[in-house]
Amino acid sequence: MKSDIRVCSAWRAVHDRPVYTLSDTCPECGADAENSAPAPFDPNDPHGEYRRALKRRHR
């Protein structure tokens, strides 16, 4: 599921703090806005196998 809240892609270089928006561009500088949510799954997660095993065990 994609998040509706976006953050300015150039906020580190242009702004003092992150600028959040619902549009595709930053309202202050006009740069592209990108998804602000982190990825929910990392295929290279070294502990993923153990977390899934714990979930199965505690059901």
From TrEMBL:
GO terms for cellular component: ribonucleoprotein complex. Residues 31-59 are annotated as: Disordered. InterPro entries: H/ACA_rnp_Nop10 (IPR007264), H/ACA_rnp_Nop10_sf (IPR036756), Nop10_arc-typ (IPR023532). Keywords: Ribonucleoprotein, Ribosome biogenesis, rRNA processing. GO terms for biological process: pseudouridine synthesis; rRNA processing. GO terms for molecular function: snoRNA binding. Involved in ribosome biogenesis; more specifically in 18S rRNA pseudouridylation and in cleavage of pre-rRNA. Belongs to the NOP10 family. This is Ribosome biogenesis protein Nop10.
